[in-house]
Amino acid sequence: MEASSGEKIAPEALISKFKITRLLKQDQNGRRMVLLGSINGQQGLLAAERAAFATESLGVLRAFHSAITRVNNLGDNDIYRWYLASSGTDSDGHQSHDLKLNLIWPCTEQHIKKYSDQVVRMVTETPEIYSDYIRPYMRAKREQGRLNWVFNILEGRTEQEDVILRDEGHGPEDAFLMLPDLNWDRKTMGSLHLLALVQRRDIWSLRDLKKKHVPWLQYLRTRVLEGTVKMYPELEEDHLKLYVHYQPTYYHFHIHIVNVMLEAGATQATGKAFGLENIISQLETAADDEASMADVSLTYYLGEASELWTDIYAPLKQGSKPSLDN
């Protein structure tokens, strides 16, 4: 990784160079926090997980950061990096990897909004709202290059050592690969979290799924389950839950694979996670092969800081026409 000055910085060294500005968010259960800061003048986000965090003052946060040692880089792709590290010593006086760190650097204003505490709203996206506003929004985000890190993986440029399954299927449209989610520590089976990224690029989200895709989705489900239990033989297929997000963080179709025992946080909640089996079942009842998930209304939640709320749903609620030029 090169800084804006051209300085070459090893991934492990980035953590010590991170200068904390403020706390963005701490999960309610106290095991994860997101810090806003900078490295060489460029903003970044540092997410840290452990048993519980003391966050009562900026001084406490800085003391926590200063105590981070034994930083071990697990991988990096584009602006995303993930680590195991130590925050101190155990009862025997030894340092152990008790921290899972995620660093986003340089981060954007959209990253800051996403990871900040904010009021959440439930919205209903009708087929008309999707067609008139959401689909153009998706297209604009894809054209901004926000999928570069996904394409880096799919095209074999990064994270290939993490790929646990690469399935070519019956042709290019079937192909997918599977790898650990960056939020998983890669060893605790109870919190297993994998991602299946499809190779095809015509399906941006569950809205693009049609009845004609049911055989493909069933194939994906079967191969993902088989691949996971083969890689982790201590698990069985009914230990696993498969879902997709809407709205997703990025507009390239992917499936989340988690242990059903994983504590269901916000990313698995109603209004965010849609079960893959339920999607398949809904499509099977559609009238014809071209009937799609774009033809139904979907209800989900948004943070008030998100662009979808500020630029689209808030104006609609106020009776105004959204402007997609913001």
Automatic annotation (TrEMBL):
Signal peptide: none annotated. InterPro entries: DcpS/DCS2, HIT-like_sf, Scavenger_mRNA_decap_enz_N. It comes from the Eukaryota. Belongs to the HIT family. This is HIT-like domain-containing protein. It comes from Aspergillus cavernicola. The lineage of its organism: Eukaryota, Fungi, Dikarya, Ascomycota, Pezizomycotina.
